[in-house]
């Protein structure tokens, strides 16, 4: 069944943003990230191999939840669906893009950078949005400010998010997860260094970063009590109090 964007955003604290040049990299890369605890993957349409990579991951790595990113044209939505994508990510939002995603039967995580774009997405019933490019648009301060008029909107900040600042984002009550390309450095892909990618994923996966972001000391009992919750996003919010 096609997941909702709320489900996609609640599945893992970090969504690796992937640029796959060679489709042979797709399956080992996806397996490395899943092994590191990051099952939600965004394959950007920035390379000619992207759609083939999505199809291969869908076929061979069933534990992964793979979506297509850099959706900037209406036609991308159908292409992504045909390749087997489970969701769509765009750097922006238009009414036509929203309609095309719906026609393709996939949830869209649209990028927004302004209050007007949040309103536009809201008019289509969307409350789960990508904040892009996050650092360049004011980072955590902007997200805090947007919470005033839009308290029920949840964000996936992407663009400039790094190991050094991702906890700052995850500690905000209106952030469910972050996206970033740092999990799959081009050098590691070129070298086929999948262990390095698994290590990078492990450093940011699981409930631990969320607990740390909430300023809580590591407490296995507290975390296991939320591990069984149906909605991991809600669990993360509970952790933050
Ligand atoms: O291609 C897309 O769909 C985008 O929206 C852009 C990506 O999300 C960012 O380029 C990731 O940003 P970095 O983690 O700073 O590299």
From TrEMBL:
<protein>
    <recommendedName>
        <fullName>2-dehydro-3-deoxy-phosphogluconate aldolase</fullName>
        <ecNumber>4.1.2.14</ecNumber>
    </recommendedName>
</protein>
<dbReference type="InterPro" id="IPR031338">
    <property type="entry name" value="KDPG/KHG_AS_2"/>
</dbReference>
<keyword id="KW-0456">Lyase</keyword>
<dbReference type="GO" id="GO:0008675">
    <property type="term" value="F:2-dehydro-3-deoxy-phosphogluconate aldolase activity"/>
</dbReference>
<comment type="similarity">
    <text>Belongs to the KHG/KDPG aldolase family.</text>
</comment>
<feature type="compositionally biased region" description="Acidic residues">
    <location>
        <begin position="218"/>
        <end position="232"/>
    </location>
</feature>
<comment type="subunit">
    <text>Homotrimer.</text>
</comment>
<keyword id="KW-0704">Schiff base</keyword>
<feature type="region of interest" description="Disordered">
    <location>
        <begin position="207"/>
        <end position="241"/>
    </location>
</feature>
<keyword id="KW-0119">Carbohydrate metabolism</keyword>
<dbReference type="InterPro" id="IPR031337">
    <property type="entry name" value="KDPG/KHG_AS_1"/>
</dbReference>
<dbReference type="InterPro" id="IPR013785">
    <property type="entry name" value="Aldolase_TIM"/>
</dbReference>
<dbReference type="InterPro" id="IPR000887">
    <property type="entry name" value="Aldlse_KDPG_KHG"/>
</dbReference>
<dbReference type="Pfam" id="PF01081">
    <property type="entry name" value="Aldolase"/>
</dbReference>
<comment type="pathway">
    <text>Carbohydrate acid metabolism; 2-dehydro-3-deoxy-D-gluconate degradation; D-glyceraldehyde 3-phosphate and pyruvate from 2-dehydro-3-deoxy-D-gluconate: step 2/2.</text>
</comment>
